[in-house]
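User: Please run a holo structure prediction.
Assistant: Happy to. Please share the sequence and the ligand.
User: Here you go; the ligand is iron/sulfur cluster.
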Amino acid sequence: MFFQIEVTTHCSFICFYCAGRDMPQRHMEWPVFERVLGGIPAGAHAVSLQGEGEPTLHPRFWGMVAAVRGRGLSPTTITNGYEIDVGRIAAELPDVAVSLDTLDEAEATRIGRLKLPRVLESVEQLAATMGPARLRIMTVDYGQDLAPLRRYLQGLGIRQHIVQPLQRKDDYARRYPGRVPAAGAYHYRCRFLQAPVMRFYDIGGRELPCCFIKDTSAFTSIDALAADLARGVVPAPCAGCREILRDVAQVVRA
Ligand SMILES: C[S@@+](CC[C@H](N)C(=O)[O-])C[C@H]1O[C@@H](n2cnc3c(N)ncnc32)[C@H](O)[C@@H]1O
Ligand code: SF4
Ligand code: SF4
């Protein structure tokens, strides 16, 4: 199973699509982290230290990595690639993902992915130090031209390129009204609730069934979400989720 722990909501970037920019800015407290980690069962599980913030900014990020490894679990993360310790990542993480949306510095700055030259330097150093097979690039497709980025990654030998559309869920999309289609009809079957696919622990250590619930104000329990969907009601924390939409249309191109 896949586990994800939101270790911080702080970030040095201001991506226009990031739900974390509207959240209280805090680091996960160490006792909360220890409790969450202690609850993850032993086994060949990946634990991603990452939520709606830049994980490497947590002052005890490397202690968290060591604690995950100490439990015999496999640590990973997604980083914005700014101010990272390439040598340590190569030595202590089996794999890592870096987010990169464009090679155009002015465009990167416009969308809030700052310091592009430094990020590209990180990507190139990681590819050289770890080998491209241990590196994944995450891209949000918001309508930009992806061809130059794809050529660049090919040149570096990086094959794992995950391109995701802008999130449609209400609790993300409120940051970019009009950029994604409004929710249509639902089918009410969520694969994250039908079987435990993953567990996400938010900054306060709250256990969630997926990584898509950013507004937890109406969340009570995983069972309550499943019960609502079973009777044909979309619970507020799931509003707009593509996992339960019948017609998953793509991003509205700007
Ligand atoms: C929330 S970030 C946290 C990790 C790190 N700060 C970073 O940006 O890589 C994790 C991933 O989610 C993506 N992401 C954030 N908001 C999104 C949205 N509204 N739609 C699609 N992807 C999104 C980011 O681009 C990044 O690849
Ligand atoms: S770098 Fe990551 S956490 Fe920071 S604003 Fe962008 S998506 Fe959000
Ligand atoms: S937010 Fe989406 S993926 Fe998560 S439980 Fe609700 S319907 Fe399922």
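Residues 116-130 form the longest helix (15 residues).
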